Amino acid sequence: MDITFRTYELSDRTVLKEIFLLNTPKYFAPEELGDFLDYLDIFGDDYVVALVDNQIVGGGGYWIRSSDHQGGLSWAFLHPDAQGTGVGKALATYRIDQIKASGEAKTILVETSQHSFGFYEKLGFTLLSHQPDYWAPGIDLYSAVLDLEK
């Protein structure tokens, strides 16, 4: 399995939309699709597409805010067939490394759900807060942080 990453291109939009829908409603509420597509329109330069054997299997965004030395991970998801294969860990690690390489962030924030929090916890993120039914009924908000100075 050959895993590679590249910056999002407009031609990726349809495939990412299809993969997003495969993750609805377990990981995302249906109404979040519009928010995700808006995110790509505005922040696509900071969105990474994950490919396995040159086929798009998902992606994830990241951001760096130098004003308060914070980085973040956003809108990560994979095709269900790619989940549990190591692609998600590779994608998260790639984005974390991009933030680290900037030298501007002291922490990395992720806002996720109960379905993905354990994944980030295994990567060293610690829980900051939990809010039930935040994203949608049955989809809670878990805010977690990775301290880069430890």
Molecular structure report:
By secondary structure, this protein is an alpha+beta fold. Helices cover about 30% and strands about 40% of the residues. It contains four helices and seven strands. The N and C termini lie far apart (about 35 Å). The mean pLDDT is about 95. One of its GO terms (molecular function) is acyltransferase activity, transferring groups other than amino-acyl groups.
Number of strands: 7
Gross morphology: globular
Global structural class: alpha+beta
- N-C termini distance: 33 Å
The largest sheet, given as strand count, sense and whether it forms a barrel, is:
7 strands, mixed
Q: C-alpha Rg, in Å? A: 15 Å
Provide the succession of SSEs.
Answer: EHHEEEHEHEE
Mean pLDDT: 96
- Look at the structure and give the CATH class: Alpha Beta
User: Number of domains in the coordinates?
Assistant: 1
The number of helical runs is 4
* Assigned CATH superfamily: Gcn5-related N-acetyltransferase (GNAT)
* Order of strands in the sheet with most strands: 1-2-3-4-5-7-6
Pfam families: Acetyltransf_1
GO molecular function: acyltransferase activity, transferring groups other than amino-acyl groups
Protein name: GCN5-related N-acetyltransferase
InterPro entries: Acyl_CoA_acyltransferase, GNAT_dom
